[in-house]
Write a structure and sequence with these properties.
Elements lengths: L2 E2 L2 E2 L25 H15 L4 H12 L6 E8 H4 L11 E7 L2 E8 L2 E7 L4 E6 L4 E7 L4 E4 L6 E8 L2 E5 L2 E2 L1
Parallel strand pairs: 3-11
Antiparallel strand pairs: 1-2, 3-4, 4-5, 5-6, 6-9, 7-8, 7-10, 10-11, 10-12
Length: about 170
């Protein structure tokens, strides 16, 4: 009595290899193309449930700080908040000052780009971050001066590599 209505065993397959319930061949895992299935699932997810732009932006900014051994340079002066307005002055540059230990970073942000200096003066490699990748790689000279022709847009931070240490400024909106 192993045959119940043409079905053989508990899996629902009859003797000719067909699945009587759906009229198809039984599922065999070796035939499945896992890479193709993953690709189709990614495409469906991208269409039906895409990652919100704000979440993607936050994730990119968080990844940019993956350099955990870096010291954070704290913003101590921002001319948008701390400066006394000057009557008649238009299109004034934004002045920023960051401190981390004995290092001070002064930055002037204009429509033409960035201009800055490290104090005490020292050479350094500087990256302007807009996400996980640097959009500009700069070099501070022996006097600690650096400049960038492209003004930052959106959130940005600076990563400085001086000698053996790494310093990352707080993120700011341009």
């Amino acid at each position: 009595m192993s045959d119940m209505n043409g079905l053989n065993g508990a899996n629902g397959a009859n003797d000719d290899g067909q699945d009587d319930v759906f009229g198809e061949a039984p599922f065999v895992d070796e035939e499945l193309d896992h890479d193709r299935l993953e690709e189709e699932l990614r495409e469906a997810t991208a269409i039906l449930d895409p990652v919100p732009a704000e979440l993607r932006r936050i994730a990119i900014e968080a990844y940019a700080l993956h350099d955990l051994d870096a010291r954070i340079a704290e913003l101590t002066f921002d001319s948008l908040v701390d400066a006394i307005p000057v009557r008649g002055a238009v299109d004034v540059p934004r002045m920023l000052t960051f401190h981390s230990g004995g290092l001070t970073v002064d930055v002037e942000v204009t429509a033409d780009g960035l201009l800055g200096q490290l104090l005490p003066p020292q050479s350094a490699a500087i990256e302007v971050l807009h996400g996980p990748r640097a959009t500009a790689v700069l070099t501070a000279d022996d006097m600690g001066r650096f400049s960038c022709d492209a003004p930052p847009t959106g959130p940005f931070a600076l990563r400085l590599r001086t000698g053996g240490e790494s310093v990352v400024t707080e993120w700011l909106r341009a």
